[in-house]
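Agenda item 2: adenosine-5'-triphosphate complex prediction
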Amino acid sequence: MIWVDTIAQGVLLGGLYALFAAGLSLVFGIMRLVNLAHGDLIVMGAYLILLLVTLLGLPPFLAAAVAMPLMFCIGWCLQKFLLNRTLGDDILPPLLVTFGLSIALQNALLEGFSADSQRLPTNAMTTASFQAGPISLGVMPLLTFGSAVLVIIGLNQLFYRTELGRAFRATSDDATTASLMGIKPANIFAAATGIALVIVTIAALYLGLRANFDPNVGPARLIYAFEAVIIGGLGSLWGTLAGGIIIGVAQTVGAAINPEWQILSGHIAFLLVLLVRPRGLFPRAHD
Amino acid sequence: MALLQTIALTAHYGDFQALFGVDIEVSEHETIAIIGANGAGKTTLMRSIAGVLKNAAGAVRFDGVDVGTLPAEEIVTQGVAMVPEGRKLFPSLSVEENLLIGAYGRKGGGYWTLDAIYDLFPILGDRRHNPGTALSGGQQQMVAIGRALMSNPRVLLCDEISLGLAPVVIKDIYRAVPKIKKSGASLIVVEQDIAQALAVADRVYCMMEGRVTLTGRPESLNRDAIHDAYFGASK
Ligand SMILES: Nc1ncnc2c1ncn2[C@@H]1O[C@H](COP(=O)(O)OP(=O)(O)OP(=O)(O)O)[C@@H](O)[C@H]1O
Ligand SMILES: [Mg+2]
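Presented output:
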């Protein structure tokens, strides 16, 4: 029966990885841009929330809500004034620029906040847990997982029910033809990255509530996010959730066998899925 | 006065020059056809007018205003829409979404709505929820035309709307042209099929190697003149 609990914990952990990954998946799906600074943007979001908590005395959830529009603007400007210039037939410039951005962000955070590890304040409610049969469910992992599902439902609604979503899909299919419809691809991309950073803020909230963070933990988050996106199938949002869950379950099961195997077994699960399905679980029909 | 006009329009792909000073014009409610062999520069001309290719200032005038340097997304908002060569439907979008996205840059109301498009091409109404790319070639062409009409254009550019279609299907599609004209739009129709072009157009331009080699009303053009303008003088 311990296995049921282990797997349940893994599924819930997968929600956190899906949150790390959803913004990456969104941006990749729309503009084929791999943002190597994604993990550092999550860490930056966590510091922004921390700043709002300490300066304004806001509770973390409220601070995250305040941070969201700020992060949207940061994402919008980042895409419009920097990343759009790197897009083109050559895939190297966006990789180089976002790699540079990753390093610059880490150093800026180090300069501004020192290397001390930080944590967002938690209270009794968020650290509580309760028993459901053989499974012990923490409120925080449940909230994380629920948020991940809501984010993905929300993004799907946005994609398939709104005019902006239609423009996202059309631009992703063919930016030149989209411009013939009156769509400005540069602005569509900016909106997409803005929305990605709103999701990053949610990921940052749970990152900061669940564990310590310091300016250098971004790249490790990026790895999990990447793995979730890739085994889910590039650009598929539900696939990203599935990918996150697979990595989460592999990690908790691995850790149950031997605590030293936690990280490794996540990576092995990633490789195994790729071996069986090189294009991921839910690849897009066309690309 | 011309509604849309190109003035000494040139176009380049890198070092290669595809258009050498093209002057064409279309008046309000007029339909012109552009004919010419493969590689003559017809699509390049359409892409230049639509703003997909960068032009010199003053090379394209629309409604008395220089639009030569405007990007594609502003050209369509001004009232010039294009049915691109090869249809270029969005594979991620259903038939209806493909039509709706055509209205993205539209300013204000006008004749063309979803209902008006389904009235023009009833088969699209039946297939509105299918992916655009699941349709037959002719139906896809109807979607591409409907999508461009959804912006309520004053000038509609049609680049080889008969390409790769069976004669009966081509007839179906060209049956829509009088209705499109009646909605008030001017048309620029690019055609490889000379008979079709002559039948539909008020005036015809023939292009060869990036230049206009012949222009006139269909009834004033004889076969030999068209042949020469198409392939170069035979002697
Ligand atoms: N993207 C491109 N890059 C380089 N050269 C191009 C490009 N597109 C067209 N050309 C060249 O420009 C010239 C004009 O091509 P264009 O497509 O305008 O001709 P067309 O009259 O539309 O021909 P078709 O009847 O085959 O559609 C051709 O010589 C073609 O090879
Ligand atoms: Mg052509």
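Discussion summary: The pocket of magnesium ion (ligand 2) is lined by residues B 42-43, 85, 159-160 (CB under 6 Å).
Owner for follow-up: CH.
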